[in-house]
């Protein structure tokens, strides 16, 4: 009887909802979970089955689902105002959020341009970097340095600084020109290669963009803090703006509040998204340093202003949740839990690396990738291992044949153990 409830929801869903990164022809047969509600770190489907959310609802959920304090912040703001535009006007809760973030972000004298999605935050950073040099009267600096394997979002601009793959190569003709791609973190020489280009072509470069410490969507490729630091210094020496895309890594995910911090980076532009509002509401931000933002000052209606802004940038409901979320992250010392749980996760996953079915295990904080080693193409090991885990009540999603684990930041010791136990069993069942 319960299965009938699920089947009918899947049917209705399949008929009218177009899911991202999903082949709708096989959507229904891949046993999608139709979420009805949540409790803590569990999602509950239409038949009442519970799943541990081991992908943080695609890396956005930080403290958990239905956190009483965040629910309350949302309700309280709803009784004031849900939304008012930031184009030419202000909103008290957005001012409070910007002030609270200002003391935490690794950016000098920060200014916040809010948007709704990570891709838009990246898009804004690219346009700001481009116009910055124009405003300063510097010619020629119109190119970007980006890393191989990078992922910065799905809009055309963010796609242009991304590395492609995952079926997006088709869009290559739409990518803007002038992006110099140097190797990503999987190449131990990535830093040398990037520094070489920074030195040789500094006069052409508006900015360099990286995902500090970990290239997430690439399958969790991890850099050394020392290399990230050298890269940052090389940008500074070349006078090239440094853009840190912390859409995935921000707000404690890697074991520090921001992943720019272990390498001592002070980006000129910082992109935030995903966890900014605790995974509750779509909110992103491009954080510009004071010196960058000040280059846009000038006469009213003149050419120096940034002519860019999204309808829902600085949404008041999202801002209220984001403000309370930041307070809770600090009050509860969530980062300390991430550090402990990350150590446990890395230790528990390490033995998997020596199994024949596994090519590599990579972790950075509570972001982990277990790369499977299928003996032939087309076996869909990533998909099948994750399906087995979902069947066992642990919700995960692969990136190709990399099984990705992104537990909620407040996960307990038992939950981390359970995630790894279920993954081990799923691999053993599937990859014989
Ligand atoms: C997810 C992600 C983005 C894109 O964010 P959206 O909110 O999905 O547009 C950009 N950069 C990185 C590093 C990400 O992980």
Structural overview:
By secondary structure, the protein is of the alpha/beta class. It contains 14 helices and 17 strands. The chain has a seven-stranded mixed sheet with strand order 4-12-11-10-7-5-6, sandwiched between helices. A four-stranded mixed sheet has the order 1-2-3-15. α8 runs parallel beside α9 and α13 crosses α14. The protein is globular, with a radius of gyration of 22 Å. The relative contact order is 0.15. The structure holds pyridoxal-5'-phosphate. Pyridoxal-5'-phosphate binds next to α6.
The largest sheet is: 7 strands, mixed
Kindly, what is the distance between the CA atoms of the first and last residues, rounded to a whole number of angstroms? Answer: 34 Å
Morphology = globular
Strand order of the largest sheet: 4-12-11-10-7-5-6
Query: Domains counted in the coordinates: how many?
Result: 2
Helix fraction bin:
25-40%
Q: Can you give keywords for this protein?
A:
17 strands, 432 residues, alpha/beta, Aspartate Aminotransferase, domain 2, Aspartate Aminotransferase, domain 1, 17% strand, seven-stranded mixed beta sheet
Q: What would a concise description of this structure say?
A:
The chain is an alpha/beta fold and about 425 residues long. It folds into two domains: about 35-65 and about 335-430, Aspartate Aminotransferase, domain 1 (Alpha-Beta Complex), CATH 3.90.1150.10; about 70-330, 3-Layer(aba) Sandwich (Aspartate Aminotransferase, domain 2). It has helices at about 1-15, 25, 55-60, 70-80, 90-100, 120-135, 155-160, 190-200, 225-240, 290-295, 315-330, 335-350, 380-390, 415-430; strands at about 35-40, 40-45, 50-55, 110-115, 145, 180, 205-210, 215, 220, 240-245, 270, 285-290, 360-365, 365-370, 395, 395-400, 400-405.
């Amino acid at each position: 009887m319960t299965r009938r409830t699920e089947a009918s929801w899947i049917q209705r869903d399949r008929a009218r909802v177009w899911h991202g990164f999903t082949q709708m022809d096989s959507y229904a047969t891949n046993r999608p979970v139709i979420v009805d509600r949540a409790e803590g770190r569990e999602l509950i489907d239409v038949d009442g089955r519970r799943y541990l959310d081991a992908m943080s609802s695609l890396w956005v959920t930080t403290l958990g689902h239905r956190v009483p304090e965040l629910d309350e912040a949302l309700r309280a703001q709803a009784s004031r105002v849900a939304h008012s535009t930031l184009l030419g006007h202000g909103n008290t809760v957005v001012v409070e959020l910007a002030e609270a973030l200002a003391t935490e972000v690794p950016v000098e004298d920060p200014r916040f341009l809010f948007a709704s999605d990570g891709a838009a935050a990246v898009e804004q950073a690219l346009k700001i970097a481009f116009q910055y040099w124009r405003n300063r009267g510097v010619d020629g600096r119109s190119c970007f340095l980006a890393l191989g394997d990078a992922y910065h979002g799905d809009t055309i601009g963010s796609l242009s600084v991304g590395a492609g793959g995952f079926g997006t190569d088709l869009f290559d003709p739409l990518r803007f020109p002038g992006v110099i791609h140097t190797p990503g973190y999987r190449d131990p020489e990535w830093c040398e290669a990037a520094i070489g280009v920074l030195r040789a072509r500094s006069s052409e470069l508006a900015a360099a963009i990286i995902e500090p410490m970990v290239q997430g969507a690439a399958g969790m490729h991890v850099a050394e803090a020392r290399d990230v630091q050298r890269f940052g210094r090389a940008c500074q020496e070349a006078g090239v703006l440094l853009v840190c895309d912390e859409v995935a890594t921000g707000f404690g995910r890697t074991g520090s509040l921001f992943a720019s911090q272990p390498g001592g980076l002070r980006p000129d532009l910082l992109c935030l998204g995903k966890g900014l509002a605790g995974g509750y509401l779509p909110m992103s931000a491009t954080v510009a340093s004071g010196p960058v933002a000040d280059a846009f000052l000038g006469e009213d209606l003149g050419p120096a202003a940034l002519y860019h802004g999204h309808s829902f940038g600085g949404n008041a409901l999202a801002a209220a949740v984001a403000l309370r979320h930041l307070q809770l992250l600090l009050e509860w010392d969530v980062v300390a839990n991430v550090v402990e749980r990350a150590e446990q996760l890395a230790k528990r996953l390490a033995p998997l690396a020596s199994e024949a079915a596994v090519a590599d295990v990579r972790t950075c904080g509570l972001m982990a990738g277990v790369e499977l080693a299928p003996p032939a193409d087309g076996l869909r090991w990533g998909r099948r291992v994750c399906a087995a885990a979902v069947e066992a009540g642990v919700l995960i999603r692969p990136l190709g044949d990399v099984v990705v684990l992104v537990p909620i930041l407040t996960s307990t010791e038992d939950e981390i153990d359970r995630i790894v136990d279920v993954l081990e069993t799923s691999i053993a069942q599937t990859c014989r």
